[in-house]
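Researcher: Structure for this, please.
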Amino acid sequence: MPAKSAAPTTVWRIAKHTKDFRAEDLSGGGAAAVGGRWNAVGNPVVYAGTSIALCTLETLAHIGDDIACRNRFLVGIEIPHKLWEARQVVAPDSLPKTWVAEPPGMDTVHVGNAWLKSCDSLLLLVPSVIVHEEFNVLINPKHKDADKIKAQVHRPFVYDPRLA
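Model: Predicted structure, token format:
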């Protein structure tokens, strides 16, 4: 009897659904257009999180007073076990103390850009600036295995008004 493969891991996004990008889009085009803590403008990457709660905090940090926005959706991204096991991890203590700068400095951008360019792994786990002990997941859409992951909209995401 063939060996049973391990279950996939699901990572999460709270994503906008617009005329430019569908909520389940994994091209990294949004991050390439504006850049982020871990990527420079022009470098596509998909930002996700290991939990829905962390994604909530991370997106709240960026939406400001627009907590009532209605074009946010909870997206699950299914990562095959083998690709999850091949992930790379950046530990907070391996970064310069300035990695938490706001707005972000170049320390983290250099780390992310180098990883994107190398294509060594599909996934890079990076510490959250909000909760250093938890990890955001960067997905390299140019990696050879990027087509093996699947994104699915689970439901509309509405922020609890008490978070405002």
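Researcher: Any notable elements?
Model: The helical segments are 29-34, 52-63, 81-85, 106-118. The mean pLDDT is 93.
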